[in-house]
Write a structure and sequence with these properties.
The protein is an all-alpha fold. The chain is built from twelve helices and two strands. It has a two-stranded antiparallel ribbon. β1 (312-313) and β2 form a beta hairpin. The longest helix has 34 residues, at 255-288. The N and C termini lie far apart (58 Å).
């Protein structure tokens, strides 16, 4: 099987490739976490993509645990972005997650073969690290990450004489996103996991979630109201509903139609995201009188719209 096929099927890579990946990921993660730079905008897109590597490295494949591993980073990323919107400060830990140095087989190896399990804990002898993966990650998020975000937002708003309660409504987009993703993935009538389309789903969610969080970042930088909605969530909710209609005795999507839905959603997400990204970039560059990737000539620079101290551009109110 080629490396491309391995990645698309979430098969664990060869030992040499696996080891090089394990060595390269931690330093990059630590650097971003320590500096707080290059984090939200790009890492929002990278949440599901980077976690696909973790899914493959752990040998989880297109399973519910694999889907959880690929999508769960979206939760802490959203709440960190929500926290930044209110506190104007980016808080990140030193590590975003565990990295295994013993190969993917360690996740499926019984604890009894790895350690001397005491007699009082013999019931754990046949359990594997993979069995504890989901509970540990959820426990860490619920007891550590989420509470710290809430506390920091509460402190920041209290210092401005504001209440925390209204901000809890801003969780709505993430609740809809999470509920829709879980409903679609867990549906027994869906081909998403059964026919190994987890990679396609995660590629799509990269742009969906990326737009959710980057809209919050843009609203924070431009001091605009919190963005509650993106049109990219609509096909996600629609797919979740359509694949669960048979639970209610109603006709749902056929396997072929669900696959078409996934591909159409992927294309739609790309078009919407990049159209929005180009609009934002061009608007900022036009307002500042700069080019995005090039330095304009003196003639071009003189004709650019330059912001003035009184808040006007080329003599017109901006």
């Amino acid at each position: 099987m080629s490396q491309v096929q391995q990645r698309m099927r979430l098969v664990p890579p060869a030992d040499s490739e696996n080891y090089s990946s394990r060595l390269s990921i931690p330093p990059r993660s630590r650097k971003r976490n320590l500096t707080g730079k290059d984090s939200h905008g790009i890492d929002s897109l990278n949440c599901t993509l980077g976690s696909l590597l973790e899914t493959a490295a752990m040998g989880l494949g297109p399973s519910k645990t694999g889907a959880f591993t690929a999508l769960v980073p979206c939760l802490p990323m959203f709440f960190s972005t929500w926290e930044t919107y209110h506190t104007h400060t980016l808080y990140l830990g030193y590590f975003n997650g565990p990295t295994a140095y013993f190969g993917p087989q360690v996740w499926k190896q019984p604890l009894g073969q790895m350690f001397d399990v005491p007699e009082t804990l013999q019931f754990l002898e046949d359990r594997t690290p993979r069995d504890f993966w989901v509970p540990v990650i959820l426990f860490a998020f619920v007891t550590a990450h989420l509470p710290s975000c809430i506390v920091n937002v509460a402190k920041a708003r209290r210092s401005r004489g504001q209440s925390l309660t209204p901000t809890l409504l801003e969780w709505t987009p993430m609740i809809i996103y999470t509920a829709s993703s879980c409903a679609w993935i867990s549906s027994p009538h869906s081909i998403l996991l059964r026919d190994n389309h987890l990679v396609l789903f995660c590629l799509t969610q990269s742009f969906v979630f990326g737009r959710m969080t980057t809209k919050i970042i843009l609203a924070h930088l431009t001091r605009q109201p919190f963005p509650y909605w993106t049109v990219l969530v609509l096909p996600l909710a629609g797919g979740a509903i359509a694949t669960n209609l048979p639970r209610l005795g109603l006709p749902g999507l056929s396997p072929q139609m669900e696959l078409y839905w996934l591909y159409a959603y992927f294309v739609f997400a790309i078009v919407v995201y990049f159209r929005w990204a180009l609009l934002v970039i061009n608007s900022i560059c036009e307002y500042l009188g700069i080019n995005c990737l090039t330095i304009p000539s003196k003639e071009q620079h003189s004709t650019k719209a330059r912001p003035l101290a009184n808040g006007k551009v080329n003599g017109k109110a901006s």
